[in-house]
Records
---
Amino acid sequence: MLAANVYVTLRKSILDPQGTAVKNALQSIGYEEIQAVRIGKFIEISLDGISKEQAETRVREYCKKLLANEIMEDFRFEIVEK
Amino acid sequence: MLAANVYVTLRKSILDPQGTAVKNALQSIGYEEIQAVRIGKFIEISLDGISKEQAETRVREYCKKLLANEIMEDFRFEIVEK
């Protein structure tokens, strides 16, 4: 069985208010080493009955059709044996 | 400069309705190879002025204090040079 680990992150040019809130919260409790926080999604998909090569193509399709909004977000993924 | 990549995922015993909705949506457009989808968070933190060893300790603290709810969530992280 295969698993796809998909990482969806906001593009660099897009503001991330959730990340900024977390950065400020951590700084306010004394963690001054924090320069920036960006929050994205980590999506684990279990796949069955397809090859690793097919999975590469399919997961790209999932990302483009449903998982990522490419206007605002970047995605990357890896296919691993499970 | 260092970066921490933090992955926060729901514990296996916790239902993930958002993941189930994504699974159903992908299956409904014909991707029948999908067995399960679990959605977590991917948090990128930029750190300055501390060593890699200090960063390991600090990032564990961030997770325990703020980034993860350990009753429902697991976390793991890696520290990388940026």
Note: The helical segments of chain A are 17-28, 52-67.
---
Amino acid sequence: MRFHLGLKAALAVGAFCAQCTAQTYQRLGSCPTLGCILPPDQADFLPGQYFDIRVEVHAPLNGSEVIPGYTNPDTNFTLTIARDGQTPKAAASFFNVSEPTLETWNFTWYEDLFAKAANTPSQVRVAAKAYRHVALYQPGNYIATLNYRNGSATYANWTVRDIAPTRKAKNVVMFIGDGMTTNMITAARLIAHHQINGKYQSKLAMDSFPVLGHQMTHSLDSYITDSANSATALYTGHKSTVNALGVYADSSKTSFDDPKVETIAEIFYRLYKGGVGIVSTAFIADATPAALTAHTRDRGQYGAVIDSFLNGITNYTWTNWSGPDVLFGGGAEQFYPGKGSFQGKDYYAEFANKNYTVVQNNTILQKSSNSSKTLGIFSVSNMAKWLDRNVYPDNLKIAKTAPDGSNGTATDQPGLKEMTIKALEILHTRHQQDGFFLMSEAASIDKQMHTLDYDRALGELLELDDTIKATLSYLESIGELNDTLVLVTADHGHGFDVMGNVDTKFLNAQKDDRDKRGAVGTYQNSGLSQYLVANRSAPVGSDQNLIYNAGVNFPSNWDPRYTLYQGLTANPDHRENYQVHKTGPRLPALNITGFDNDDYYVNYVDAVTGFIVNGTLPVSADQGVHSLTDVPVFTRGPCQEQFGGVYGNIDIFFGLAGCLGLSRTSHP
Amino acid sequence: MRFHLGLKAALAVGAFCAQCTAQTYQRLGSCPTLGCILPPDQADFLPGQYFDIRVEVHAPLNGSEVIPGYTNPDTNFTLTIARDGQTPKAAASFFNVSEPTLETWNFTWYEDLFAKAANTPSQVRVAAKAYRHVALYQPGNYIATLNYRNGSATYANWTVRDIAPTRKAKNVVMFIGDGMTTNMITAARLIAHHQINGKYQSKLAMDSFPVLGHQMTHSLDSYITDSANSATALYTGHKSTVNALGVYADSSKTSFDDPKVETIAEIFYRLYKGGVGIVSTAFIADATPAALTAHTRDRGQYGAVIDSFLNGITNYTWTNWSGPDVLFGGGAEQFYPGKGSFQGKDYYAEFANKNYTVVQNNTILQKSSNSSKTLGIFSVSNMAKWLDRNVYPDNLKIAKTAPDGSNGTATDQPGLKEMTIKALEILHTRHQQDGFFLMSEAASIDKQMHTLDYDRALGELLELDDTIKATLSYLESIGELNDTLVLVTADHGHGFDVMGNVDTKFLNAQKDDRDKRGAVGTYQNSGLSQYLVANRSAPVGSDQNLIYNAGVNFPSNWDPRYTLYQGLTANPDHRENYQVHKTGPRLPALNITGFDNDDYYVNYVDAVTGFIVNGTLPVSADQGVHSLTDVPVFTRGPCQEQFGGVYGNIDIFFGLAGCLGLSRTSHP
């Protein structure tokens, strides 16, 4: 699936595997042997958290793993579970569920890039079972053992963490800056906060949080994660696989039978009927919001994701769910009836039928009642960017993103701050007793880094920070600040940094690409940021002369002569002139050889005064990719002391769930 | 100054301004007006810390700042100082020093790249004074006022921080990973620590420190710092200028009269006669070690730096200094008599004459007494890298870096761990009562990132972590762990990250550059790190089959088929094949058009199987450059609670100095 220009470009889902054309070399990432247990070895559980178990036995028919004579997988495999020091029991008996039906299927994979190039897939036959909707209540270590093929065994060591069921926070507000790194935070501070002789005169709101941590984002089966995989870790405490939402990925054909793990939203609702808010600047079926309620291996099942927001999981017994209090974002194409919506249904109507107030622009949003459940869908696809809404508003008149499906424009969109504060008002009104969990995502930090649109990405980050500041202020105004754990983090990074400045006047005056590079200034020649120096000769309100109220920290000039020399560590072919892209979000690379050929070159209409930079990514890539780096975690409020130092992304789930009192050491 | 191959390349000083060919646009960075006060506005001081004051009055003769008729600077300027709410006093009277002599000079600068290209410098005439060796004792706010030219005034608001003189730590060990970022730490963990299903089975030593912070490295007059500038901030609490060591840079011709600020080592020695150790894998005159005792605007004054280690500052009255207890590193060319050494003297003899034990290899180092002051210089230039010492030791037989100046090789070099533990043994032996301050620098994280030699850089980072682990263990063994504040940080970053993997076999099998890029795997195709999977068919001890003792965390295989897809955000022209450089440190770019022409292209003998990547840096750059990102601070021990959250690099000085009890609220 590839998109190219205008609206379609804006729809491009950054992390989606469309550009993953290089080597695949794992039969099933979670299963290096021929017997597979999911949840796999090293999985951790919250006491009382529901999950499914999938076991698979593989028989490779060809390729490097063939066992001569073993072409049909053993169907007499057994799974046992034992708590530390106790006698193993058959899984069905241990969990007191019926023995599941045997399932069989086949799948194929490529062992490496040579096999892929030669189109010689390896085939595998599978025998499998699934034990569904089980839980472990007693803290401690467990071992799951899969016996198969006459003495072969796969083991999974599981740990149920010893987390007290005591609730310490009434509310949790979790901000996710999608793709946000420390490097980006540093750059955003530079362009929006004044310094004098090197000393900042103000800092970001997140800078002032008392506790700082780093989370490691390594996923189950790859060291680079996507947002589905990492959101699953953050919300469930279980690391998973690229593209997977709230499940471990199995090898079966359907993407709706993979073994599920219960999410923080589901547990909070099950135990407390607490309020849940989901806010994102992405299309709302996108991975980071989706992973709170969806359970599918394929994040691309957008329609089903929307149905899960409203109805929960319906094809298997699972946690009851009656929809969040608040669901705000973009992605109208999954709501108005048509090929984008689940079963072609009108999901505006589906939500309205369940007593949701449905709003489609900021004006109505701000006037709507705080006592109703509310669905706010403000555009087709991802919502407009802060830079376009605030500095280049004419760009909102270009894309036909009206949320009502009318093919009109969506010029009255709220920002993350407006959506988040309204969400808090509703959650506070509806859940004064039982508290709330709000996830608010600045999605387009990631999306704009993907397309090398650094200015727009940093604008989104500053909007996130402005939202955090407004949130603290609002929580204080309603007397909830001390009872609310506020956590700001990311789900993964992009390899971004700032290395100096660029004299764009000099660059634009040079003809030769090598000469243009001479406009770059490093070390002492980086000088000072010019983004807060308004151009007094520019017209009032222009992008070179912006005026904000005191304490509002955004650049006063997005188009200074001396801009940031900034970039990514992984690029498609593109051109750089280091100037703001005034006519709308950037599209750095283009397939100039044919529409479906995945052969990307420099977009000849992008950054035309710049010099050409050849990429290092596969030529099938039209945008940047995620990176490895640990990402920061800023925390304040009850339980803040648990979030310092360096830990895994799953520890965020356990910290939040523990603070909300979500563990249960016996069947409720 | 440019170097090209072999030893000379190894000598290249990363951050030096040789490659800063782009715009200069500040007359004097700390002085945007025509009257200059150093320390400038916003400077912070430790109570009782000595410093010099420089005031300058500028009269531009041409360029954009000319004032018609004002061609000679006002020589009747006055400087006053006032504590908050008190009457200003003339500076000489306030500090009870003699009124300084008036000085005058001229200097020139370029206003921008166009002026530089046209060779049209702007000229400035200067009148100046310096008030030397003064201090402020009472915490609070002060204002320095420079009145000049009939009513013009420049103000500097100074703050003496309210820091109690109580000593809380007996010892401080400060580790500096030069250029080390969170991203690099994440990558080093990936290649040296096992994970199972995404969960690390061990972590880095620094990961386990209880308190994490981020420091902002923005310098006085540019947002990108070099290591001199940042070391000055870390050791003195004063932000400075690129290339400046322990001074604010003024505009005078000599680099030995700039206004000084007292360093943590100097204060600790002055107040407690405490032990001081200085350890680095760089040539020891390099910026990070140098800034503990040197006071010069020009970090390139290597000989004078060495003299300052031994004799302190001799051209002005300054803190008495009799040399550190330990000085270990490279840079023999500043010690044996010759053009590299200060005044051509033999500094081995100079140190020996002051009762230093002088050692030149690891064998002798390990046997030498712990009761003597010790100078250990183990190679010409920067010391050998961990990867070469441990995996490719034959590379040590190539460079003629014998520390005795014999033009032999230096094959018996200690690593950072050996130097650091020996330093601790000496410091502990000599300073059981008064405690010690040790700075230990992993210098070549930075140096190898500069040359895009990611493997060597990560090897250095892992050696740093191994050194930290050994340090904690040693401190515990001598009963000093609980009395020692251990702090691990960096001085700046490089824009580095890991984005996936590379199938080097596939890459090497492709002929076309665009096809080679198809070997890159991202997201799920990054798979798992192969650096801990030894190649069982490789010879024992080869770089594909390395065996370490349990708990020693380095890669088992530096040359796996699937390597890291990694890179920097700022590059010269170069080629990438993503394989380890087996024959010695990398040299990515080369001047193929002439020796002094600063016109760099891809080095045709580097990474020859790879594809070409054109850089974004000026073509005069042969290596990468520093970046903006906040860098991490890991702390454990007394006062650890002061180092959480986000703060400036100068706050590290104030935290360390406060913990060591270095403030004095009255003249001693």
Note: DSSP finds 17 helices and 28 strands in chain A.
